[in-house]
Specification:
Immunoglobulin-like; 2 domains; elongated
Length: 164
């Protein structure tokens, strides 16, 4: 006659169920909290002012947050090349909130000098588009602490509006 209590198999099933539920919860939480870098693309350039020495323009970016959580950026630094020439540097210190799994429009104002835009203006007159390259970094705050991520993009962008 066996002296093993009948509750033994129940305890084993309960422990296995709890372990399985715990590992499933951890896997789900890990998937939700996995950090993916945002994607950035320059959508358009809007000239907002012209002077004898240069002018001002707005760079309009599409930023996609692929994460399942809100992402906050506290600093954005970028170098912009137009038509293969250095055009300028952009610094944004104001906070930027990116909605989860969503696109956001980000507008960055930039001042420029005529000396640096000759090739870009020639391309604009010939094609009404400008080839661009962006490189830089952003400080973002995903769950778990601040991260510095690299940013890069390239392509062609139309000049949409002249002097709003």
């Amino acid at each position: 006659m066996s002296t093993t209590p009948r509750s033994g198999p129940r305890v084993v099933r309960l422990v296995l169920s709890l372990a399985l539920a715990g590992s499933t919860a951890c896997a789900t939480l890990q998937h939700v909290l996995t950090f993916q870098e945002p994607q950035i693309a320059l959508e358009e350039i809007n000239v907002t002012g012209l002077t004898l020495s240069g002018g001002t323009l707005d760079l309009v970016f599409d930023v996609y947050n692929p994460n399942r959580y809100r992402l906050r950026s506290t600093r954005l630094e970028m170098t912009i090349d137009l038509e293969g020439r250095r055009f300028g540097d952009v610094l944004m210190d104001k906070p930027l909130d990116l909605s989860p799994e969503n696109h956001s429009e980000v507008v960055l104002p930039v001042r420029f000098e005529w000396a640096g835009v000759g090739a870009g203006m020639r391309a604009l007159l010939e094609r009404q588009t400008i080839r661009y390259t962006l490189s830089g970094a952003a400080l973002v705050e995903p769950p778990g602490g601040e991260r510095r991520i690299g940013l890069s993009a390239s392509g062609e962008v139309p000049l949409r509006r002249l002097l709003r």
